[in-house]
Structure prediction request, 261 residues.
Amino acid sequence: MEDFAHFTAQQARRVRYVLCDIDDTLTTAGKLTARAYAALWALAQAGLRVIPVTGRPAGWCDLIARQWPVYAVIGENGAFVYEVHAGRRTAFIHPSVAGGDIQGRLAAVRDACLAGVPGCRVAGDQFARIYDLAIDFAEEEPRLGLEAARRIRDICQTMGARAKISSIHVNAWYGDYDKVGMAKLYLTQQAGEADPRDSVLFFGDSPNDEPMFAYFPMSCAVANIRPFAADLAHLPAYVTCRESGEGFADAVDRLLALRRE
Prediction:
């Protein structure tokens, strides 16, 4: 991981899309700060297409698509994309999203996690989810460590679910998709990008962002990635000096300054 100070003007001029995780990438201690939100507006006003790529639920993503300065939002770790254009919200669902009794299968995973890892609990935003299960290990008290998160992930995987660790939740789902799979599908099929790797700068902070780090050459983590580094086979190309929303806003300032050169 190189310091984002080494990002070049040549790279900055190639960027047309800024994709970013939300929790602990845009937010700081659970809050979207004024500076991080202003950075999103600055990107949009510079003509860049901002697309949050998050494990957060459909209900939250509906609000984000409608009220934030974003072009689209990818939610529930790649299950769908919501867009609002010309006053109308549309949804693009990943073709591999599991059908049938998905809620019954996820309920069994939930029960196994709650029984197997004392102190973990269903995430507070689960009521707003459609396609996945989120088990909270660090958003609310008691905050558990990464070892607990790994045990939750392993339980999910033994039950045939896909599972990813974020900075706060373990997300589990049935279907052959993830953040990068949907990003590639959306950008090529819906946005008409022949090779998204040439035009995307991605920001993340945790293991569930690893597929994005691996695929996009222009990828950057905020500094709070460091505790997760041992869990990652694919590190981001760049890292910010500061954590969370401040690191994101610093990087946006540099990106836009480079584009003005």
In short: The radius of gyration is 17 Å. The chain has a mean pLDDT of 96. The domain at 102-173 is CATH 3.90.1070.10 (Hypothetical Protein Ta0175; Chain: A, domain 2). Helices lie at 9-14, 34-45, 58-67, 102-116, 146-158, 179-190, 210-215, 244-260.
